[in-house]
Model the fold of this input.
Amino acid sequence: MELKTVGLTKRYGPKTAVDHLGVTLTSGVYGLLGQNGAGKTTLMRLFCTVQEPTSGKILLDGEPVREMGEEYRSLLGYLPQHFGYYPDFTALDFLRYMAAAKGLPDRTAKKRAGELLEAVGLAGESRRKVKTFSGGMKQRLGVAQAMLNAPKILILDEPTAGLDPKERVRFRNLISAFSKDRVVILSTHIVSDVEFIAEEIILMKAGRIIQFGKPQDITAEIDGFVWECGVPTGQAERYAASWNVSNLRNEENGTTVLRVIGERPPVAGAARVQPNLEDLFLYCFGGNEG
Amino acid sequence: MKKLIGFELKKIFSRRLTQGAFALVLLLSAILGFSTYQNKYAFDGAGREGTGKEAVSIDKAVAERYAGTLTDEKVQRMLADLVPKTGENEINALYIYHNATQSAVSTRFADRYGGWNGSTVADVFGEGEVTIGYVDGWLSTSRNLVKILILFSLFLMVMTAPVFCGEYGGVDQILLSTRYGRTKCAGAKAVACVLAALLTTVAVLALNLAMAFTFYGTEGLDCSILFAQLTYIEGGIPFNITCGTMLAYQALLAFTGALGVVGITLVFSAACKSPMVALAASALLYGLPVLLPVSEVSPLFRLVVLFPTYHAQFVSLMSVEQMGGGALYALWAIPAGVALLAGGSVLARGIFAKYQVS
Done:
């Protein structure tokens, strides 16, 4: 399966959210990273056909998805960043309704809903109304609905938002197990989530892809640009404000170890360390909010 | 599709505002029906007087004496039996209310003092046979239904307004990305609205008619609406149909009006982002025909009265003309209601199918 964008552009008035984007995705988990406003959510909405591109197209195995209509959407699973729900529906009702909208036969819908509620840890809450759910529970229900139809293309926008560490681990395992022979695109602000499960990283800035590749390949591009150095704890904040610092770690001897991203060592004696995705993110975006 | 319709119905009926508005319609129906019954007054002219149940009993007893085909002989008998006992000092006999039969006969056949005004049955009603009896109960029920059905139309707007735009609060993103989100789901919404509207119409009509049956019985259903007391004359329907026929038309128009209202509201529901805006826009359009400067003699009036507003306020529509075979022009409300529903559903579905989340 090959999901491809050709000159994909989406404009909102004078603002270009996605700018002549061309990318080809095959089976695997893709982590979508970028600052707020980079165009991640718009790109996902375009993939899900809930928004129409201003120009360009999306092709699935060479066929324009717009023309495929229901056939394409039957392959989709989508968890939006912010989504609504029906407050008086139970979790099970919500899933069965979504299953009906996805065209699943009733028997399959019941079975899948049960399995997925179990998988996201909501089996005991299936008869509870969604309005009584916490934010994390609603998020898990959202993940479950996205996977109901065993989609070939699963698109998850900030799926780990509101999940506690244990739930995040459960989610990562669920996605890893699910992703075989499917295209999974997930965007998150939590870089470590992507680092664990994404086979490929897509880094977006101002509607364009600025990095695309395997985590080890794209982080290799800043090999030699990540340093660790110790500074007196009292002065750590001053240093952090003037350098592009990805981490601070207080040591017991009154020093703070800073992880600094820069083309030159920040101080004499700074040790070069192996870059990770977070370092790459900060390198690309200069330490602004991610 | 059946499953989707079931879920859409569940969504519709689980909304608190819908539940509350429907309960209000039923409650007001009960209050209006009961208070009308309790406020009935009658005096038989021979010392028996009462309100509520007693008044209905007196009216029925008086009407029973003259029941059957209205003749000039009966008119004379009624005028003699029911001559006003009060108000001789320049007070018009028409406005001295004793009982429903006295009011009905005085209105058409009495002079200001209660004596015969010289009109014959044929002069007043033409050559057709007019069957008289106790019609006051069912006519007051019909008049109450007009108020209830206007209120019910507002309820239908409250119920239908969130059907599409309620999704725009965030579920739309999920729904529109599903296989049938833009197609069958939208269709299911329209079908569910129609079913909900029909079910609630049945409930409202059933409650009102059941109350009327309990209070007034079946007497008068086979009697003409023409020989009615003074308060039903103004804006009355000028055709010799029975109370039963009139109520059947009114029930039919309740359904056609409901379909039309649903059709209109569905369009605004799909086009507006907020249910409140959709509700306000639908209510405005619903009320608009009443504000149009179109008189009843204008040819345009025949089109204007086919709008759902006039299905609820049914007298104007029922008064347009009698067609062949005794059928009334009001039957045109059926294609009008269906056309509004079909057009509204198709348009709403199209808008929803093309909707882009923002």
